[in-house]
Amino acid sequence: MISLSVAVVGHTNVGKTSLIRTLLRDVTFGDVADCAGTTRHVEGGAVVIDSTQQLALYDTPGLEDSTCLLQLLSTYFSGQRVDGIERLQYFLDNVTDNGEWLQEAKVLRSLLINDLIFYVIDVREPTLGKYRDELQILSYAVKPIIPVLNFIKGEQENTTRWVAQLARLNFHAYVCFDNVNFKFSDELKIYQKMQTLLADKEELLSALIKQRKSQWQSLLTLAKKLMAELIIECGALRYAVPDIDDGPQKAMLMLQNKVRKAELDCVKKLLALYQFRQQDIQDSALNIQQGRWELDLFSRDNIQEYGVQLGSSVAKGAGIGLAIDLAVGGLTLGVAALSGGVVGAFWSVKTRYYEEIKAQFKGERYICLDKQTLQILYLRQLKLLHVLQQRGHASSEKIKFQVSVSDASNAITVFR
């Protein structure tokens, strides 16, 4: 298999493991913590492109004392003109397994055996000398280096300061990639930057970019399908009950439980689709509004809807006596309508309200979702999808997607 291998290096606790988690879409890769020195050994993962190609990523321990290490390397071959790579090799040939430089040795070995280096930077940190020393040591490996600026959200000034510092050290090919606040476009920029530095891997990286774009679009398409299926399923739920005693109340509870379960199933599928865990989400029960969707013919909204939808149907039914009377704000059906005109109307709207009208005559009541609840249900899934598309796989904050009732007025009724 043809591989492109990358060593992910940097100071302790800057987000090296988090970067790999996000690129691999794997929330379980490595250990992520706020304390220094969490990664103590080299660990790898791969993005498989096809049966013959992959991108391998190797997590390394943090560089803890780069200044002293650089001073040690400078003592080798005193008075001789040697390259930095020879200093690194000499260091590795002489380091002991139980020596004080054991962690640094793991990092330096990774530099020499991989094709490219990601140097992860926490832009919130000041541009101290220890970071400049780290970059100096990395340059000894004679491998392409891409500085990855992390935690950039809301840090424009600090990001600009780091970019200026990198330029002074002759590092101009950097990328901004926030491991927590993910942008798919930023991930593509990483691969595109790699293309400019690795001409011999251009074909492999082109295949990777094409694959990632296709996968991202497929995720969105599948997510939309799941959301549509949820809305259709919940919108079609209705229970016919006698409009007496506690029948409507029992039916309402059945409806609420059914909708909540349907939404939970959809949420689980969306989380799995984007490779997150159910434990990443904050509990957020759906608030059923009224428990009933106004579907009876005396609803003002439905009268207006009928006025639009029945235009051609009225013409069909007029010959057999359909009459609609909007006086006193209500709807009156003439005798003739019951015999033939209403049949013509229902045929055109595919009997949308047929069962509801029949229930009115039988003294029954239909319990189903009102429009506002469906809108809120849709908005919740839309918000969750938006969050998942912008969430890095190293994020520890709980996912929230509660939507207020007032947001329903802004519902988008079709997928774009």
Question: Can you tell me about this structure?
Answer:
A hairpin with a 2-residue loop joins strand 2 and strand 3 (53-59). The protein has a 6-stranded mixed beta sheet, with helices on both faces. A two-stranded antiparallel sheet has the order 7-10. The model is unreliable at 33-39, 288-352 and 404-416 (pLDDT under 50). The protein contains 14 helices and 10 strands. It is of the alpha/beta class and 416 residues long. Helices cover 48% and strands 12% of the residues. The longest helix has 34 residues, at 202-235. Helix 7 runs antiparallel to helix 8 (202-235) and helix 11 packs across helix 12 (335-348). The chain has helices at 16-24, 66-74, 84-94, 102-113, 129-139, 156-168, 184-197, 202-235, 247-273, 300-309, 311-318, 335-348, 354-361, 371-389; strands spanning 2-9, 43-50, 53-59, 116-122, 145-150, 175-176, 238-242, 324-325, 332-333, 364-368. It folds into 3 domains: 2-197, P-loop containing nucleotide triphosphate hydrolases (Rossmann fold); 213-292 and 369-410, no CATH class; 300-352, no CATH class.
Structural features:
416 residues; Rossmann fold; 6-stranded mixed β-sheet; two-stranded antiparallel ribbon; disordered C terminus
Short précis:
The protein has helices at residues 16-24, 66-74, 84-94, 102-113, 129-139, 156-168, 184-197, 202-235, 247-273, 300-309, 311-318, 335-348, 354-361, 371-389; strands at residues 2-9, 43-50, 53-59, 116-122, 145-150, 175-176, 238-242, 324-325, 332-333, 364-368.
